[in-house]
Amino acid sequence: MNILPLIERKKQGSELSADELSWLCTEFVARRVPDYQMAAWLMAVRWRGMTAAETLALTQAMVASGATLDWSDLARPVVDKHSTGGVGDKTSIVLVPLLAAAGLAFVKMSGRGLGHTGGTLDKLEAIPGFRVDLDLAELRAQVERIGCALVGQSPALVPADGALYALRDVTATVDALPLIASSIMSKKLAGGAETIVLDVKYGSGAFMPTVEAARELARAMVEIGEGAGRRTRAVLSPMDQPLGETVGNALEVREAIDTLHGRGPADLWTLTLELGTHLLLLSEQAPDVEQARARLTELRDSGAAAAKLAELVEAQGGDPRVVDDPDRLPRVSHIRMLEHEGPEQWVAAVDAHAVAEVTLELGAGRRVKTDPVDPAVGVRLRAKTADQVARGEPLAEIHARTEGTAAQAAERLRQAFRFTTEPAELAAGEKEVIGG
Amino acid sequence: MNILPLIERKKQGSELSADELSWLCTEFVARRVPDYQMAAWLMAVRWRGMTAAETLALTQAMVASGATLDWSDLARPVVDKHSTGGVGDKTSIVLVPLLAAAGLAFVKMSGRGLGHTGGTLDKLEAIPGFRVDLDLAELRAQVERIGCALVGQSPALVPADGALYALRDVTATVDALPLIASSIMSKKLAGGAETIVLDVKYGSGAFMPTVEAARELARAMVEIGEGAGRRTRAVLSPMDQPLGETVGNALEVREAIDTLHGRGPADLWTLTLELGTHLLLLSEQAPDVEQARARLTELRDSGAAAAKLAELVEAQGGDPRVVDDPDRLPRVSHIRMLEHEGPEQWVAAVDAHAVAEVTLELGAGRRVKTDPVDPAVGVRLRAKTADQVARGEPLAEIHARTEGTAAQAAERLRQAFRFTTEPAELAAGEKEVIGG
Predict the structure, then answer these.
(1) C-beta atoms surrounding B73 within 10 Å
(2) Which secondary-structure segment (H or E) carries A294?
(3) Does A368 score more than 90 pLDDT?
(4) How far is A121 from chain B (nearest CA, A)?
(5) Of A40, A42, A170, which has the smallest distance from its Cβ to B4's Cβ?
């Protein structure tokens, strides 16, 4: 086989066979297909797209490029979840111990943050001592023992994804929808879960700007999951403002802990409950929505879920006392309050992208991969969309290292808020479920 | 500047500026832009195309990548011609001495053959001793002295074209129309002619399959030429069967010589006369079509054009006696006649592609760049479209090295002919002229 006819045919819009895609993936990973030919093929895919069969075949070839996890000897049903990301999304830190407390096995592999995207790993590392780099033997032992793990993506799994992503990143082909779907799903398939729930966000604070794009991505991912014999469901939800109140690593961990204690923001708990319910139903661990929700709420209220998080933190080398005493998390000395300056008004919108940008400036994220991350800095929103605010009432807390950076951040953060003189409503946005 | 936004914007279908294209070309030639990024950009160009302004800017950037020829101190008007190629096209070998005999300067740089495309250089090298690799100083001296040259593309001119073409060749982006136009025209512009006539063929024997594609390419090239201040005109003509009677290096040189002596095939002389007329008119060396045609015919009939070819052959180290005694050209010992087997019929079509394939098999061309070329082998068609043939009458001569290869070629060559029981007509095809 030779790549040139494969580029040619994809360029013409033809469908490639599973054998051809498998060959292409294997040869690329083995570095027998040069980058320049793969780059041309990637741009042709960005142009012509891929059929569901092609996307599945490529994903399976990517999975075959490395190790896969097999949990079939585990007594618990194994579930997994992926979110396409959003500003302030700390759902995994709530959802993983909650579902593990419900008796499921939940092995969640996550990534680091770059640019506007916060990374679950960076958040977890705000917990003193917490290790995200378990090897596969450690991971298996921990999951057998406590039923869950929150770790970094293992380099042994899907090496093709790293190689392909690195090339997509420098050839303007990151935004090819079937390649996004296969990248995400290859890691889910290799992770070995039987049940996969996908949280696909759309809107100004999300990776996918429109509901149409989110729906297309969700369908592509569900088709891959189902094609590979996994129970797969995607939930589409709007995201125009940050999730919860906090953006910043330790602040978000604290909010996740608060949520497990029943004192977190409503939107975070609502999303956690929704995704958890789908996971219980899809893995046949609850008979209906009501019983699933009741069970998860009871695991929160009993403290079982918080206790599971403490177990997880301890298993991964972190200080489990943070779960009962979140003040042990890294904190800054300067907290500046941003106050509302106008007359009494309603918050019409909080621009998630702008909040992320301010948080990045404070040092909570990375502009380039090698940037260090400050665990303590960030933003806590005190007013969100549809909230009424009077003059002098708080809009947000800025957690910064110095007065100077706090003052600078305050000016920029103010621009993230839009106000209205009429009562503003939160767009409810009927949730759309695909697959399963 | 950085290539990534340029790939991104071309992918989105935006227009790049002249400065951006100039930067891209310069950095690519300097190897500061990696092949994989250029490959992605090339595929984006294949997808989105380029505007006339972009195509001109890229072409001028390519020209600026190397040396350019300046003939402004020459007393004669300098003309050039390009043909998009066709099976059996030996027009340059007739046209160049004819126009030089008319007092114009004609510096024709040509390429070698690969696959189905015959190369003018390979044809010329069938003349014993003929050198195509003049350096720029030799070239200038010869043109000053005799007014013409038939040489290889100088590596000093447009190095960007070689670099870009090599990458296009392995990334399935050869067929991007603006890149074809800029590749051809960059070499014409660097060659320094004030007047350029483009012979754009379409049909089963041509590089462009349809008249629409040929017209689009012709327009793109004329826009570049005119945009760069050259008098440029393109002539579109159909090509479904080989041009003239012969395909093969020495056989084609002999046919070109015969045509200069007034005893060549009609279609070759007709095309030569047409292109020559455009060149005379466009360079303002003839007042009208009739006088241009009369002058060129008179230069043929007087022997002046043939004498100019002998001068050119001698100047480039070849044996000038071939012009009066073409038997001095390399010849094979086996000539096998392919005869018509059916009843009296008309030739409906001669598949140029199939004839080229047979000739390639005989050894006249290259499958890969390093293949040696046999100057003597080839095919001479004795019947062409619309000719009537009776049983046993000759269809073609096969000039081969052995009886075995001749027999094999005969079987395949027979498949190139299609017959009809009704008188067949040669599609006249109104010539379309673009530009000038």
Answers:
(1) 7
(2) helix A289-301
(3) no
(4) 28
(5) A170
Do A36 and A181 lie in one domain? The reply is no
Looking at residue B430, its pLDDT comes to 63
Element (H, E) at B401: none
Q: Which residues of B touch A43 (CB under 8 A)?
A: 7, 11, 39-40, 43-44, 47
Residue range B163-221, pLDDT digits in tens: 999 999 999 999 999 999 999 999 999 999 999 999 999 987 787 889 999 999 999 99
* Nearest residue on chain A to B5, alpha-carbon basis: A172
Residue B279 near residue B231 (C-beta atoms within 8 A): no
Of B35, B37, B172, the CB nearest to A7: B172
- DSSP state, residue A326: G
Residues of B in contact with A36 (CB under 8 A): 34-36, 38-39, 167, 170-171
ipTM reported for the complex, 2 dp: 0.88
Q: Which residue in the set B8, B11, B171 is minimally distant from A40, CB to CB?
A: B171
When the pLDDT of each residue in chain A is averaged and rounded to a whole number, the result is 95
Q: Which residues of A touch B46 (CB under 8 A)?
A: 11
* Structural domains counted in chain A: 3
B318/B343 same-domain check: no
Residue B35 forms contact with A (CB below 8 Å): yes
Residue B427's pLDDT is: 66
Amino acid residing at A50: M
Query: Are A207 and A120 found together in one domain?
Result: yes
Q: Quick one: pLDDT at residue B205?
A: 73
Percent of chain A past pLDDT 70, that is, above it, reads 98
Same domain, A370 and A415: yes
Task: List the CATH number of the domain containing A197.
Answer: 3.40.1030.10
For residues A416 and A274, membership in a common domain is answered with: no
For residue A70, tell me if it sits in a domain: no
DSSP string across A295-321: HHHHHHHTTHHHHHHHHHHHHTTS-GG
Give one DSSP letter per residue of A89-126, joined into a string. --HHHHHHHHHHHTT-EEEEEE---BTTB--HHHHHTT
- Residue-range definition of the domain harbouring residue A177: 78-326
Among candidate residues A85, A149, A84, A150, the one with its CA nearest the CA of residue A118: A85
Q: What is the mean pLDDT of each run of 10 residues along chain B (436 residues)?
A: 95 98 97 97 98 98 97 95 90 98 97 75 96 96 98 94 95 96 97 97 84 95 98 92 95 98 96 97 97 98 98 98 97 95 94 93 88 94 96 97 95 96 74 86
Is the same domain home to A138 and A182? Answer: yes
Question: A87 vs chain B: nearest CA distance in angstroms?
Answer: 25
Residue B55 lies in a domain: no
Q: Which residues of B touch A38 (CB under 8 A)?
A: 36
Of B35, B40, B167, the CB nearest to A172: B40
Q: What is the DSSP string of A261-284?
A: TT-S-HHHHHHHHHHHHHHHHHTT
In chain A, whose CA is at the least distance from the CA of B47? A47
Residues of chain A in contact with residue B16, where contact means CB-CB under 8 angstroms, are: none
Picking from B10, B11, B43 by the largest number of A CB atoms within 10 A of its own CB, the best residue to mutate is: B43
**Alpha-carbon distances, residue B327 vs B116, B125, B253, B256, B332 (angstroms):** 26, 15, 11, 13, 11
CATH number of the domain to which A416 belongs: 3.90.1170.30
For residue A239, pLDDT beyond 90: no
Residue numbers of A annotated as active site: 82, 161, 168, 183, 187
Q: What is the dihedral of CA B213, B219, B225, B226, to 10 degrees?
A: 180
- B274 shares a domain with B387: no
What pLDDT is recorded for position B156?
94
In terms of domains, do A146 and A237 share one? yes
Does residue A64 fall inside a structural domain?
no
